[in-house]
Amino acid sequence: MEPFLRDEDPADAVRSLPEPARRLFLTLCCITEDDLYTYAVGEADEELAVLSEHGLIEIEDGRLSLHPGAVEAGRAMAELADSRFHVADQLAAIEDQQGRYDRALAFKAEALGLAYAAGDPHVISNQHHDYAVLIARVDTGSPRVLAHYFAAAAIAIRTDAPTLRAEIEMLAMFAFAFGLPEQISLNDDIIALAQEVEGVRLGELLESLSQGTADDLQQLVARAMERAHETMRDWSPLMTAVVLQAEGDTQYASQLTAELAGMEENPGAAPVVHVFRRILAGERGPELLNGLGMLPFGMVSKVLATLRERAGS
């Protein structure tokens, strides 16, 4: 590999990097060699170019290698609190991409705890949101998923964050798919579940955000349920058409065929279209729900429940 520019000491070279490139290099220092060879950097082309210019990496035949003298320095820097947060966050994303969800959750839990240590409410809210997304990969309807979405939304509403609408949307999708508990307590349920993650001090944080009101939770529940009802109204015609045709009633067959074909052009909607076609072909098993996100899970589960009810089973 080419020597460092200006014959710098490896540690000095890493310290002199622009922040995005430095974070990427520290992350690369912390992943396994096998993963390094297949590492997908996504939108990090500019950062890779900077690292290459500094002689810190080389890419040959699709294989990425690190300058051996800089790895030790990079790992040492990754242990510093601020760097550890960004490294843990990026490692969680890498493990998620690789489908290793248990490892992704472990790194994301570390990042969430470190976000609390840093103290920025907006970052903490985003980390709760991302943690909920990861839990849902392995336990879709888990109360922990709901708790972390509520945590993200409760922080957002008390800080008037621009992400509040998106957080309410996630709560609404959870409600549409799984319903919300009839009784839910901010202190006894949400905070307790969220604080199972080491370093999370949700109760203390919410207490410190004084502009919030005492009925934050009720506001969130009301807005989420209103949005969930809107979602039900929006998708009821399609779900009804699937139920009727699955029972042999073809009065909406042409419209259903056209709508499913149109949805199939959207990659995000293709999985639920595939499941609806399986239902129309006669399948009714619970395995149809495997791997579905919250919105398609809600749609498919409601179609299956309706078919069971109408069949008297």
Explained architecture:
The protein has 16 helices and 2 strands. It is an all-alpha fold. The chain has a two-stranded antiparallel sheet with strand order 1-2. A hairpin with a 2-residue loop joins strand 1 (57-60) and strand 2 (63-66). Helix 9 packs antiparallel against helix 10. The longest helix has 31 residues, at 216-246. It is globular. The mean pLDDT is 86.
> How much helix is in the residues?
55-70%
Q: What distance separates the N and C termini? A: 69 Å
Low-confidence stretches: none
| Overall radius of gyration | 24 Å
Strand % is: under 5%
Across the major sheet, the strand order is 1-2
Count of individual beta strands:
2
Q: Which sequence of SSEs, written as H and E, runs from N to C?
A: HHHHEEHHHHHHHHHHHH
Tally of helical segments = 16
Shape annotation: globular
Mean pLDDT: 86
Secondary-structure-based class equals mainly alpha
**Could you describe the largest sheet, including whether it forms a barrel?**
2 strands, antiparallel
